[in-house]
Design goal:
single chain, 236 residues, 5-stranded antiparallel sheet, 51% helix, 2 domains, 9 helices, 11% strand, alpha+beta
Length: 236
């Protein structure tokens, strides 16, 4: 029994329907259209567009990719991240993210815009007042997660930035640090001469730490996580 070469059969069917030159021209047109679509998406990602919603098809949305602004805010504050327009993002947005935008636009029959990114401050071109997730707005403070890339954050990041979460966390950090330093400070001889020497040393250390820490923190133009998560300025 003779065997059948499927590739040959496919070529035979193709020859009967269209000539090869026409097919090549058609494929080239499709590729050019795709390239133009991707270029337009890249332009929109770099353009400051303040759109707050997109015309998604609700039936096609994946519920596990829908996040409210409050959810994003909590993550940004806990890990000292910023949630800003994609136009401020200075790193390269991967091709995979652009492909996902193309796919979403095709499925939902719409043109997406108003993109936002969650990433550390250093990943943005922050304006002078004088690692990332790409979102598109759905509306009513809801956002749709399009793509995540880059390295994962270490579990220690949340702990390391905890003192800068808000003013309360900052004071508690200075208080705990002062207690530790007071505990390791030898005050046994001093206690024999000055009543409540431990408390006096603690208050002195606490006052010094909070003054020095606050001075350098604000002098460098820093601010608390609760204040900067949606701010595009590095010194305000």
């Amino acid at each position: 029994m003779n065997t059948i070469n499927l590739e040959s059969k496919l070529s035979e069917v193709r020859r009967k329907e269209k000539n090869l030159n026409f097919i090549l021209e058609e494929v080239e047109t499709i590729l050019n259209e795709n390239a133009k679509t991707r270029e337009k998406i890249e332009e929109k990602l770099k353009s400051p567009i303040s759109t707050k919603e997109n015309n998604f098809d609700f039936e096609l949305l994946e519920t596990d990719k829908i996040f409210h602004l409050n959810h994003i805010q909590k993550i940004c504050i806990d890990y000292r991240l910023r949630f800003l327009d994609s136009s401020l993002f200075k790193n390269e947005i991967p091709e995979e993210a652009i492909s996902k935008i193309c796919d979403l636009e095709r499925k939902h029959n719409t043109k997406l815009q108003g993109f936002k990114i969650v990433a550390p401050s250093k990943a943005f071109h922050l304006e002078n007042y004088d690692d990332p997730i790409l979102f598109a707005p759905i509306g009513n403070n809801y956002y749709y997660l399009i793509h995540k890339w880059g390295n994962e954050f270490t579990p220690f990041r949340k702990t390391l930035v905890k003192p800068f979460k808000d003013i309360g966390s900052f004071v508690v950090f200075c208080l705990l640090l002062s207690l530790v330093l007071t505990w390791i400070t030898p005050t046994s001889k001093l206690s024999n001469v000055i009543p409540m020497a431990n408390i006096i040393v603690f208050l002195f250390i606490f006052k010094s730490i909070i003054a020095v820490a606050a001075y350098y923190f604000f002098m460098l133009g820093k601010n608390f996580n609760t204040e900067i998560w949606q701010r595009k300025y590095y010194n305000n």
